Amino acid sequence: MDLDYQLFLPLLLVRYSIETLPFLIRYPQAGKILEYLDLDYRLIQRQAKEELQLRKQSIGSPLQRSGLFESGTAEDRARIVLTELTRLHEELDRPRQKQRISFLSQVLNNPLYRSEVSLLISILTLRCRNPILDIQAIVCDLRILKDPETLITSLIANHPTEYYTTIESLLDSDHLGSSRTILSRLCKLAVHRAWDIRQQLLERRMFPNLAIELTIEHCHDEINFMNRILRGQPKWLIESDPVTKSSRTSILEFIFSSLNDELQSPTANNSTIHRLLRILSGMLGLMNLILSAEQLEISLQVLEMRPEPSIIDIKVCLILMCATQLFKYGKARIERVLTALLKCRNSPQVLLLTIYFQTQQLLLIDEFASNVLSMTVVIPREGFRHLETLFTTGFSDEQLASCALSLDQSRPDNTSSPFMPAKSAFNSTSSNGLTISSRPGSNTTSSNLRSSSYICVTHLLKRDIFHRSHMDVRDWILHRILDSTTLPLDVNMVPLLTAYAEAVSRAEYISRIPFNSILAYFENPAEDVTPPKVLLALYMLLNNEVCHSHLNNDTRARSVEYPDSIFQHIQIRKILLYVQNHQGGTAFESFQPMFLKLVNAQFPELFDVTTLLMEEGAASQQITASGDTLGVTSGKAGLGSSTEEETSFKDHHIKAIAQHLDNPDAAVKAYRLFQRLPQMRRQSMSREIIQVSLPSLLDPSSSSTVLEAFKNTWDQLNSIMPHELWAMTINACRSNIESSAIKSGGDNYSYEWLVQDPLLLFNVDLRVFRTPVVFRLFIQILGAVMVASRHYFRTMFEGHQIGHQSQDYGEIHLGTAISLQDIILIQMLLEICQRRTSRTKLAANVKSVATVSGALEATITTAESSEMDVDKAVEPYDEAEGDVIKEIRVVTFNFLHQQFIDNKNLAKLIHFQGYPLDLIPIMVKGVDSIHICIDFLPELLLRPPVNAPGMTGRGGGGGVKGGMLSDEFELQVFALRFAAQLCERFPLPNTLQMATEVILPRLRALAIGTGFSSVVLESATVLAKAFPTLREDIVGILRETSGSHDKAALIATLKAIDKELADHILATAQDAMSGFLCDIYLVNTQFLFQVPNKTASTHLWAHRSAMAKNPVDQGVSLSAFVDLLKFLCYGQVECLNNPGDFAISGWPSFKSGQVEDAQCWHPLDQSAHLSAKPVTWQKLLDAVNVCQVDALRTHCKVAIMAEARISKTNVYKANALRAHCKVVIKDTVGIGKSSANDK
């Protein structure tokens, strides 16, 4: 392009002389420019300023200036232009003056003067040393004129350094009306700047027509530009400055010309075709273009080209965008095109669109087009009617099924799928449960195609397409499962497996994965878990869930459950841990909810809360050689992997475990080394470890460190193979039982046997029940087996109910049977908590429920007729079982606590049946959830007498036979004793009301009915201790119901009641004073009140950290000690010689400042069994000497001397424990309602 020197003449002639550039003389304007350059511009600037002043005075008119511009000299014209520019700028600074300026600027607006004005503006800005206006201000002012592009172009041409600044100001201006024309002229002024200007237009999303014009005329990259301009949100193309018809026509002509060239070419470029079709589809969807017949013909010819996977998606998108026009032009040809596209391998686009049209998911079709075009677009809805008919009825079931199964058979690198947007999969789940995107980070071609195949097959399975086509997808499903080796797995695999399991249950031609095929893949369950194993386990769980759900509504279901034995074989717990913990739990994040739900529904015993918490705590401290602390370690890591090393471990370390009694340290080391072995080797050696450890660890001389090491090993194995471990542990603990007592058909109990008959768990060595560490494991197994047994019986019951209309055995019978089994198991645990436990008692309990849990006669007979004297065997441990039995009870009661929380009705049934009376106090104290029994306590107390053999109690007099309670009162006495113990532990307002309204009447009735039984009297004592306010009522009932032969028992009971009340009050006082000194001195000082049997005075013993000598031995009274406390705490020096001024509260209100008369001990009461001595100064001095309170000694001596001179002793009333310790000391009378006068 030749340079137009005419535009640059002012700049060239200012910088160069005519002699330097002689060729410029041929331009006609050169002479005029030289004439203007010779003017005195200082004089012109001064004259312009003067003229502006005159104009402000309204001297002169625009017509005069216009005529002067035509007839005046060069100096006049220059002055007029400079004046007009200055006046224009001043007027623009005033608001709302644009119309007036346009009218006044006759010189600048006159097209006749435009050429000469443009020269003068350029010369003025070049020659004036101190210009009135800068370049950018002039450009901004000139834009208000009519057609300013000539003036601005000439100005910028002579000031090239202002080019970019001018472009920026034009794009940033608020008035864009004239900017487009000016920018176009400026681009022609500097063609090499067109790329930069177009880039700024794209970034600012403005002037699309100018961008297209620059592309066609200067940049010549129409394909790349249009692909770029249509990306993302191209609505700016049609909003503020829409693309004009001429621009659209130019682009379309280029597109179809290029497509025609590709059709004529012997080797078509698929990449070019893809980009051209993308531009065409985007413009059709964005601008609603109408194509001509010639253009439609070219489009159809392109669609009919041999289908290539790389352009199938864009072809489908073009059909969607102009469906109405294409169907009118050639419907049959479009149908043939879609059929050919459907048959194309590894191209799921047409099949997915068929699914979307069948399920009316039109928004997903819009999403498909948007993904293909990389822009947000809405497909014209008028074409949906034709497309829906074609996609829903145009393809046969066989075509759809064959297309779905052929997907992902090969994976060419040049394929792509538009169904995988970049957003997270969790934000684009369709209404039918199919996820139309892969997880972030896995958006590869193969994974996208695989995910699309999962979606298609899932939909076709739900609509029974494969069944109607007589096609079995079993092998296809199995191949996809085994091929899923990369993580994270596709989120559409779960819907696929669910649809497959459902289809198997109802479709004749769809078969399930054979049991043997699955078992072959899990040939060695000790191997590491892999993603295919997880999917196989998930499929089996889904299959069983479908079978279970169809029991109640479809008796013709074809699917068959996989047996529980296969889940034990594959070790479902190990797979569960792998799903939860692999890669920090993120690898199977989308699978976890479904997997956990299914495992919990079918194997609830694996979700014991206590066990899970213990495992979680142990996992953080678990040491494995591979560094894997998640319980599933690599088979190649750890201590050695060779057969020789494993044999060495067995020979040396297992021998050390067997000899743990002789060398505990070696056994502990062996256990720890076993825990560090790879997971595969631990599983293979687990049976040997358990058998060599049990029952030898039941020996009382076993080291606690060895037992703890064994428990850690057991917990580690329990996290991966619980079912097998439970059976191995029980079998090992019963190794000394006669083998004839075992069921026929095998030497060991299997896990299935334990689930079907949990009572078999108790057929173990009795030392298990006196070895706390092993007993904890037994309780853990018992809890899991109880849960599994309930689930097993309920599942069997639901399966039995199908097809049986009689319903002879209903839900209530099932609940009763399960409850009876649980009651017997808990009763056996309670027997264990007694001091002595014999196998005879356990066998009797087993026999009582033999009809419920199975035929156990052989076991019972063997246990009863065993030559081994079990009682003698355990007798040495019974003699020294103090701490052991306490720990056993703690474990048992914690277990019962959880059972009662899970099933409140179980607690009710247990107590309605009753248990040994000597267990009631420890049961109430040890089970934290025992408070739930308060709800049914009135019902338990008011139950009519029934015969309930098996409970023993102590008694005498009427209602007693041979030292035993009669059967009709036995359960009633149990209820009374249990109620009294509950009241003692929970002295609440509601229990006090219950005691008044229910318990006391039952106490009266049972005292009469049992003939003053010792058990009833003990219950009365406990009740009085719980509620001291009921003492008089209880004593009255006992007096009324006692006979002459019960006098001794009555007296003993009354003394026991008084003693319990006194101990209770003294204990309360002790707690109060101990807390008092703790608050003052911040020391843990304990005070115990001791009451000598043959004295009426109460002495105080203080902890040696507070006192140097024992006050009891020195005779320090309680009253004197109160005075010492007052002096130590408050600095008050008083002598409490009137002990009637204070009392000690026996209730929690002792610390709250509120003391009731009936709840206090009053030492001055003559009828009280305890009283306080008056304090004299001499007694106080003795106490000072004993307790070494030197600061008070001098004061006491002075007071004693003063007493000798003064006849009347001053009496000071003391209040020892004031507001901040909240112990009230005041004068009241008696325990109960009696009172006494002050002395």
TrEMBL record:
Domain of life: Eukaryota
Record's compositionally biased regions (Polar residues): 430-441
Pfam families: INTS2
GO CC list: integrator complex
Segments for region (Disordered): 430-449
InterPro entries for the chain: INTS2
GO BP: any one term: snRNA 3'-end processing
Protein name per its UniProtKB record: Integrator complex subunit 2
Gene encoding the protein: INTS2
